[in-house]
Design brief:
heterodimer; A: alpha/beta; five-stranded mixed sheet; about 15% strand; globular; B: mainly alpha; MetI-like fold; two-stranded antiparallel ribbon; about 75% helix; flat
């Protein structure tokens, strides 16, 4: 999934430094991908809090490089299993669930009444009618925009598609790139596809499409690209975007050479570090396109699951219960600068998180993001296709035909 | 001098008929025994995995569930796969483009093969690109190509040429990466030739000069033949280097834009091992094709070495 990680695969692979230690009875081994500073601090705090509440249980934390984890989890789930692992909700956990590598934790959910407390993640944690882990954090996607530039040019925050396109035209006329994007890693393109599809065809259709039940040559998919055309063809996106990672596209936004950025809330930290003030940057909900389609959002959820081969499942369940509590989630997410899933957790104070919370708590439904909702292979082909489309919109027919071919092969 | 002599004197007489089976076969068995550990490791870690991965290429396997035998389906799919074709073509571009490192390295070596003050320092400066990690070179070249603030942008701007975003253009991207790859490879070929030039026989050059050879004809007919071993090694390492090209691509473009800079090795990695991959069967099918290509080349090298050894 799209998680911020600069140049990490090679630089950090060397730092993986995760050492397995055999656990004694009463010990828990937790393998995480929390290699970035904030997640690492959050997990340290989490473990400390749990050990204080459960004397006698020691938690051994193995931290993996974020990218390396995605590969190594497959090894340790099927061989020497830890007692707990971090992972992602939605279809991204389906391969492990279907291969019988995750433990069914519906019992914890029922006993603690979590279906209500963790309502927003209820559907994304359910596969085959059972629950497969504990969601503890999520974050919103939306358009971050330069309030100061909008004010200078007399542009109001766009609420509808027409207003968004008009705003782009005005910005372009003022020699400002309307929309920043970096597609060297192709996932940011999927943010645009997700939102256009969610606003034009709605959540239910988007889920059917990502589950491989609808053809990419369907005319409803064509409608998405018709709208996308209105932004791509006039050149409203940052030029040469495949040369930049999402972080490398940020300087143009910071310097005021571009004015909008559709991104997850993890954009905020590097943005502030680069010197932008809160009064300069606003957060807007992605504008309405087809009136009457209920508003749904992308909000990728992070979870902790119990591997099926875990040795200490009893204590692992205690950990999940601790993790589900409102107070725990509030503390962890304050460090992560993300949103707690538990609805009883106190509201965040950060203005962007506050806006995100308001947006998500009134949403019709939450998608996980294209590369978590679609199967990994489909996601890869899809995002390559979106990137190609954004460079060569005239090849759209061919791209969609190719995607349909891939879909036909994957979802036989 | 007296000690060894006395040692010889006390040596017992050799038995004429070897005593046991071991003693009779000792001489023929000993080399095999010494080779055994290495051969065992080679068998276990190189030969066996080759057959194993060929076997996997006939299956559909995500690395978690049971592998399912599907015959040649992966190869059939490969033959229709446009991404595979792109990767194969790019491999050829890499192979041809990379070979430029050899004449360029030779040119540099000839240029630097002088005895003036400080030439050692200059030589080591020219060798420096090979010492730096490929990853660093990839990064430096991505900045070089940066379409908003890279060196290339400024140079083109200065010359009044409209800027090109090399790494965002499906037609240019592979060439752009090959150029980055050439940077260290030229240095490597240069050092091979420099050592070769050290061994050129001065008397032959002298003789050639007396015969009136100079310039190109001296280079072509006298020096180059003597550099044949260096050229051979340079070709071998360059071709292998081009087929292994992976790190540069991963660092500079991650195979993009939309897969147009992938080579077989990178495509295999993406299909089998990357975040969105886990098609082990398909990945190993690509690996098998790459292996067959390499096999042609490796057998050429082996035959060549075998002939050379026979001549000696």
């Amino acid at each position: 999934m799209p998680i911020p990680q600069p140049l990490s695969r090679f630089a950090l692979a060397a730092l993986m430094g995760a050492v397995f230690t055999a656990a004694h009875a009463g010990d828990l081994v937790l393998n995480t991908d929390a290699s970035d500073p904030a997640p690492k601090a959050a997990f340290d705090a989490l473990v400390k809090g749990f050990e204080a509440e459960n004397p006698g249980i020691k938690v051994k934390l193995n931290t993996f490089d974020h990218e390396g984890f995605k590969t190594s989890i497959r090894n340790f789930l099927s061989a020497e299993s830890p007692d707990l692992v971090t992972w992602y909700a939605g279809n991204r956990m389906a391969p492990f669930v279907n291969a019988g590598l995750f433990d069914d934790v519906t019992d914890v959910w029922t006993k603690e009444g979590l279906a209500d407390k963790l309502k927003s993640a209820d559907s994304s944690m359910t596969i085959n009618g059972k629950k497969w882990g504990m969601p503890y954090s999520y974050y919103q996607w939306g358009i971050y925009y330069r309030k100061d530039i909008f004010a200078k040019l007399g542009i109001a925050e766009p609420k509808t598609w027409k207003e968004l396109v008009d705003a782009c035209a005005k910005l372009k006329a003022a020699k400002i790139t309307p929309i920043a994007i970096g597609t060297k890693q192709s996932w940011p393109t999927a943010g645009w596809f997700d939102y256009l599809d969610l606003r034009i065809n709605g959540y239910e259709f988007h889920m059917e499409l990502t589950a491989g039940k609808v053809a990419y040559t369907d005319k409803r998919v064509a409608a998405v690209f018709d709208k996308w055309d209105e932004l791509v063809k006039p050149g409203y996106f940052l030029a040469n975007h495949p040369s930049y990672m999402w972080q490398e596209a940020l300087p143009s936004f910071v310097k005021g050479e571009s004015a909008m950025y559709l991104m997850g809330n993890f954009l905020v930290a590097p943005m502030k570090e680069a010197g932008l003030k809160e009064e300069q940057v606003g957060f807007m909900v992605f504008p309405t396109i087809t009136p009457g389609v209920p508003r749904s959002e992308d909000a990728p959820t992070e979870i902790v699951a119990i591997p099926a081969k875990a040795k200490n499942k009893a204590d692992a369940r205690k950990f999940l219960v601790y993790l589900s509590k409102a107070s725990t989630q509030a503390k962890v997410n304050e460090i992560l600068q993300q949103l707690p899933v538990n609805k009883d957790a106190p509201l965040p104070t950060d203005p962007y998180l506050k806006a995100g919370f308001a947006m998500l708590s009134t949403a019709h439904a939450l998608a996980q993001f294209y590369d978590r909702d679609a199967s990994p292979e489909m996601a890869k082909a899809g995002m390559d296709g979106f990137q190609r489309y954004m460079l060569k919109p005239e090849e759209r027919e061919e791209i969609l035909k190719r995607l349909e071919q891939v879909r036909g092969r994957i979802y036989k | 001098m007296s000690a060894p002599r006395s040692a010889l004197a006390v040596r017992p007489p050799q038995p004429i008929i070897p005593a046991g089976w071991w003693a009779r076969h000792q001489r023929s068995l000993a080399p095999w025994l010494f080779l055994a550990p290495a051969m065992l490791a080679f068998l276990l870690y190189v030969i066996a995995p080759i057959f194993q991965s060929i076997a996997i290429s006939f299956t559909e396997w995500d690395g978690l569930k049971e592998a399912r035998f599907i015959g040649l389906a992966n190869y059939v799919e490969l033959s229709h796969d446009p991404d595979f074709r792109t990767a194969l073509v790019n491999n050829v571009v890499w192979l041809v483009g990379y070979l430029f490192a050899i004449p360029l390295g030779l040119a540099l070596a000839l240029f630097l093969n002088q005895s003036v003050f400080g030439i050692r320092l200059v030589k080591s400066m020219f060798f420096f690109p090979f010492v730096i990690s490929q990853v660093v070179i990839g990064l430096v070249f991505s900045w070089f190509y940066d379409p908003t603030n890279g060196l290339l942008f400024h140079v083109l701007h200065f010359l009044g040429i409209p800027p090109v975003a090399v790494l965002s253009d499906e037609r240019l991207v592979t060439y752009g990466i090959v150029v980055a790859g050439l940077y260290p490879q030229i240095a490597y070929c240069m050092i091979l030739y420099l050592t070769g030039l050290n061994n050129v026989r001065p008397d032959l050059i002298e003789a050639a000069r007396l015969e009136g050879a100079k310039g190109w004809s001296l280079l072509w007919h006298v020096i180059l033949p003597q550099l044949r071993p260096a050229t051979f090694i340079a070709v071998v390492v360059t071709v292998v280097g081009s087929l292994r090209s992976f790190d540069m691509i991963s660092i500079m473009t991650q195979g993009g834009p939309y897969g147009s800079s992938r080579v077989l090795a990178y495509y295999m990695y993406e299909q089998a091992l990357s975040e969105y991959g886990y098609r082990m069967g398909y990945g190993t099918a690509i690996a098998t094709v790459l292996f067959l290509i390499m096999l042609v080349y490796i057998s050429f090298v082996l035959v060549r070495i075998w002939r050379q050894e026979k001549e000696l």
